[in-house]
């Protein structure tokens, strides 16, 4: 990244670290010029300020932007600024379509006679293949090898495409499958904290920053790295040098004091924090943690909290650099030179926190005494629904209240047992949220050891799995000897990657699945992840609870959710006596001693020394060659998308939306899981029928996530979540609607095709928090390809609103207090949106809704196109079209 070409405030200076000299933008020079007081700014805004100083160019970043941020104070008026990240992080589900789009842009440039080699990431882009492994095999010593082989067989087309991208595009690296989860690999290896980048005959030093195509990119905020999750669309624009436009955010300070009490874990803490911040309301805001309590939290503990920023709704959950940060960098085998640079730079730039650091000014604050945190789970369907462990049984009882108490006799693998609602059928130690934390993982191992020694066993109906986020985890479990006990409880290694948390939990044993389905049982999953939305974990599991790794093991032993682990036994030991959770829960001293003896820097050094090499399957794979990708018309994984077909060199003028029909009327908290294709592909679904028609057998369907590089599959799976409730098709669940004006019930995809053939634009209408959850680009791409041109909702989640604009869909927010129902509308009307032709940021638009009997209602909505840059994206039909036209 080049140094500021304008430098209005003359902040360029030198920093010497040992024998090396670095160019920096010295923040304190602003103060000497009377521009702001750096010590009063939140640490996160100090990093953003440095970014503006370094990127000032008179176009995207101007002197008045810098002054506005340097003089920021709580309550400051809105000000648009541009942020340019230092790098981009991808995972393969979202990364494959991003690289597909870059390949499609090369095709578009080539067709108009340009040089396709101009399409390259301008900054470092690192992709970690981590979302493709599924838990097909579990509970045996060869589960990992079998799952890895299946993963490769299913995804070889995608992997060959990524390897082509790695050789064809500059500044792009791919971490092979079987390595870990992108956020944990980022935390343990990729994160620089402070970047040192050659620029001509100089070396620039500046804070590490990134955007990532997964909402949990925020995990790296634990290291003082500035960044968050964006849609693939925004990430692609960033790769091509397009800054992210944003309003200077509100920053909510979260003060921590004290330390966690015995028995409480970092998972319990993050579920408490998530509940508090959801109640506070921090959507679209930065959350910055401060206070003396930070010194009692390790970086892995902080990472657990930072990881779940999307769950509490914040853009970031930021922790400043301090002594714990430096200790973690030492521990994870970063170079001495890098650590010296981090320490010197952060101290020089007022970016280093100590317990005596004065509290910055914040837009708002809240506070937590860490000693009050108690053992906790969250569920049954939202991460913010925290339930103290003491009340977990009562909480679940309410879920099944009024339902018939059915019981099914099941025979499976030689075992015979009764299955009823409340049975825990999935217990998964999974997800970067907790598997990056040695204390939590070794705590689970210690609990397993004590359970085995007392003669306890996991119940035969529980599908167990261990899917850590890096190979270091299995190294230290082996060094401690605790892997043996986890294996004895069938928590064998199933893969390194994001499994159960993303919906890759794999099939349940056939007999168990059949019993759940035939008897309409409310089965339960307990997982150490960050997501538990409806239909996400497994289509047959209706109640999902987030819990710490030790509690996941405990619930696998108990086998049921309707048990009070604080007062009722987990089971009877080999001596016939009841064994309680308190009998086998490891003490903090035991955990700490095990961490000290089993986790070493050498483990990190060894595992990351050849991180890009891959195994024999990866190395032996044939790799396509050439600047242009050779698209295979028969491929059902990778297809040339239609975004740039017939694209003119100049964008057409904006126009009002006329004669639109509503494809879906949805309720509150519609997540990107409801909108975007995710999980397994049903045989009878439009996507399943498409694959069968193209010669794919159902057992080779793979998941929607693995097929994100094929728009034909993805558009057919949009709005097809099995738990989606469309008010236009009452009494149904899944991707159903009514085709207007005849009122014929059909799939959402089939209706969209009929509307498209009739030349009718489409609208979707929803309630509060539309688009919450993961940063899924297909939650915007899919609707666009279905023909949706506007989304009306009571409120939007930050990332999804941005993604809609990035795909040329107009987000319209109802005025305060107004809803479809309060306006007396049904969604069966014909809609027109006026004022779009003269669109400005956050303009009030007029909507006319005409019913089929000729009656018309008029109301206003707020156009949630928030910045002038977003107006340009929308006018061009999307951010990629805008960037491509700029390059042309």
The class by helix and strand makeup works out as alpha/beta
Proportion in helices? 25-40%
Shape type: globular
Main sheet, how many strands, which sense, barrel? 7 strands, mixed, barrel
Q: Are there runs of 5+ residues with pLDDT below 50, and where?
A: none
Mean pLDDT: 94
Quote the distance from N terminus to C terminus: 22 Å
Strand tally is 34
Task: Offer a concise description of the structure.
The chain is built from 31 helices and 34 strands.
Structure description:
The protein has 888 residues and is an alpha/beta fold. Helix 15 packs across helix 16, helix 15 packs parallel to helix 19 and helix 16 crosses helix 21 (588-598). Helix content is 33%, strand content 19%. It is globular, with a radius of gyration of 27 Å. The chain contains 31 helices and 34 strands. The mean pLDDT is 94. The chain starts with 11 loop residues before the first strand and ends with a helix.
Secondary-structure topology with pairs:
Blueprint: E1 12-17, E2 20-25, H1 28-32, H2 43-55, H3 63-70, E3 80-83, E4 87-91, H4 92-111, E5 125-128, H5 143-168, E6 172-175, H6 182-190, E7 194-199, E8 202-207, E9 209-212, E10 226-229, H7 232-239, E11 244-247, E12 251-257, H8 266-280, E13 286-290, H9 299-307, H10 309-312, E14 316-318, H11 323-331, H12 336-348, E15 364-369, E16 376-378, E17 386-388, H13 392-399, E18 407-412, E19 415-420, E20 424-430, H14 432-435, H15 438-453, E21 463-467, H16 471-480, H17 483-488, H18 510-519, E22 523-527, E23 541-546, H19 549-558, E24 571-572, E25 578-579, H20 581-584, H21 588-598, H22 601-608, H23 616-619, E26 657-665, H24 672-675, H25 686-693, H26 711-716, E27 736-739, E28 744-747, H27 748-757, E29 762-765, H28 778-786, E30 788-793, H29 798-806, E31 810-814, E32 830-834, E33 844-850, E34 856-863, H30 868-875, H31 879-887
Helix pairs in contact: 2-3, 4-7, 8-9, 15-16, 15-19, 15-21, 16-21, 28-29, 30-31
């Amino acid at each position: 990244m080049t140094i500021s070409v304008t430098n209005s405030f003359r902040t360029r200076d030198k920093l010497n670290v040992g024998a090396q000299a670095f160019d920096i933008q010295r923040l304190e020079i602003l103060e000497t010029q009377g521009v702001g007081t750096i010590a009063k700014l939140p640490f996160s805004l100090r990093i953003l300020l440095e970014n503006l100083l370094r990127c000032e160019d008179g176009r995207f970043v101007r002197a008045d932007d810098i002054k506005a941020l340097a003089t920021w104070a709580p309550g400051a008026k809105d000000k648009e600024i541009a942020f340019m990240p230092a790098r981009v992080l991808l995972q393969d589900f979202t990364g494959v379509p991003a690289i597909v789009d870059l390949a499609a842009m090369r095709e578009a440039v080539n067709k108009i006679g340009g040089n396709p080699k101009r399409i390259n990431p301008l900054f470092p882009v690192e992709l970690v293949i981590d979302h493709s492994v599924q838990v097909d095999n579990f509970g045996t010593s060869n589960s990992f090898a079998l799952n890895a082989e299946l993963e490769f067989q299913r995804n070889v087309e995608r992997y060959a495409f990524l390897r082509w991208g790695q050789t064809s595009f500059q500044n792009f690296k791919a971490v092979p499958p079987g390595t870990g989860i992108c956020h944990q690999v980022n935390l343990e290896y990729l994160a620089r904290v402070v970047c040192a980048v050659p620029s001509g005959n100089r070396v620039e030093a500046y804070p590490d920053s990134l955007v990532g195509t997964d909402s949990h990119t925020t995990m790296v905020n634990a290291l003082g790295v500035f960044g968050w999750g964006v849609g693939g669309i925004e990430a692609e624009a960033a790769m091509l040098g397009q800054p992210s436009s944003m309003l200077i955010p509100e920053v909510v300070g979260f003060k921590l004091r004290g330390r966690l009490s015995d028995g409480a874990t970092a998972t319990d803490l993050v579920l408490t924090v998530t509940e508090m911040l959801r109640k506070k309301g921090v959507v679209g805001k930065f959350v910055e943690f401060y206070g003396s309590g930070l010194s009692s939290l390790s970086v892995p503990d902080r990472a657990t909290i930072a990881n779940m920023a999307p769950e509490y709704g914040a853009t970031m959950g930021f922790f400043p650099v301090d002594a714990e940060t430096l200790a973690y960098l030492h521990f994870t085998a970063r170079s001495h030179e890098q650590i010296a640079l981090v320490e010197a730079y952060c101290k020089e730039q007022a970016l280093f926190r100590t317990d005596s650091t004065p509290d910055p000014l914040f837009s708002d604050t809240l506070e937590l005494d860490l000693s009050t945190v108690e053992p906790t789970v969250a569920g049954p369907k939202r991460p913010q629904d925290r339930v103290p462990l003491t009340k977990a049984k009562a909480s679940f009882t309410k879920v099944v209240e009024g339902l018939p108490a059915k019981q099914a006799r099941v025979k499976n693998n030689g075992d015979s047992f009764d299955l009823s609602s409340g049975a825990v059928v999935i217990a998964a130690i999974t997800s970067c949220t907790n598997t990056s934390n040695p204390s939590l993982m070794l705590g689970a191992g210690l609990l397993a050891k004590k359970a085995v020694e007392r003669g306890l066993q996991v119940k035969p109906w529980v599908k167990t799995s261990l899917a850590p986020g890096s190979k270091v985890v299995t190294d230290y479990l082996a060094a401690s000897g605790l892997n043996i006990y986890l294996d004895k409880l069938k928590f064998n290694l199933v893969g390194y990657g994001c499994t159960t948390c993303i919906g890759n939990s794999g099939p349940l044993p056939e007999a168990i699945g059949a019993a759940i389905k035939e008897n309409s049982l409310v089965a339960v999953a307990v997982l150490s992840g960050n997501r538990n939305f409806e239909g996400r974990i497994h289509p047959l599991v209706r109640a999902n609870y987030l819990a710490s790794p030790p509690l996941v093991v405990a619930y696998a032993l108990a086998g049921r959710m309707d048990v009070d682990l604080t007062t009722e036994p987990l089971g009877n030991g080999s001596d016939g006596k009841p064994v309680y959770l308190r009998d086998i829960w490891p003490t903090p001293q035991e955990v700490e001693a095990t961490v000290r003896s089993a986790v070493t820097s050498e483990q990190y050094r060894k595992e990351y020394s050849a991180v890009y090499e891959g195994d024999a399957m990866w190395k032996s794979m044939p790799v396509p060659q050439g600047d242009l990708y050779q698209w295979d018309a028969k491929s059902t994984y990778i297809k040339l998308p239609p975004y740039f077909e017939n694209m003119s060199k100049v964008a057409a003028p904006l126009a009002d939306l006329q004669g639109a029909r509503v494809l879906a009327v949805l309720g509150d908290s519609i997540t990107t899981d409801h909108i975007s294709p995710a999980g397994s592909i049903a045989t009878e679904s439009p996507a399943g029928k498409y694959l069968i028609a193209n010669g794919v057998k159902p057992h080779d369907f793979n998941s929607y996530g693995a097929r994100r590089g094929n728009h034909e599959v993805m558009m057919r799976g949009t709005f097809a979540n099995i738990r989606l409730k469309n008010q236009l098709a009452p009494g149904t669940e899944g991707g159903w609607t009514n085709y207007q004006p005849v009122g014929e019930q059909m799939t959402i995809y089939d209706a969209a095709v009929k509307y498209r053939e009739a030349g009718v634009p489409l609208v979707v209408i929803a309630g509060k928090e539309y688009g919450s959850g993961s940063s899924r680009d297909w939650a915007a791409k899919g609707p666009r390809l279905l023909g949706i041109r506007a989304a009306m909702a009571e409120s939007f989640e930050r990332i999804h609103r941005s993604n809609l604009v990035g795909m040329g869909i107009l987000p319209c927010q109802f005025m305060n207090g107004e809803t479809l129902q309060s306006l007396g509308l049904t969604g069966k009307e014909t809609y027109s949106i006026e004022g779009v032709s003269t669109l400005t940021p956050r303009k009030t638009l007029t909507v006319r809704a005409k019913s089929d009997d000729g009656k018309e209602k008029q109301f206003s909505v707020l156009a949630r196109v928030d910045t002038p840059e977003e107006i340009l994206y929308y006018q061009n039909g999307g951010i990629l079209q805008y960037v491509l036209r700029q390059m042309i």
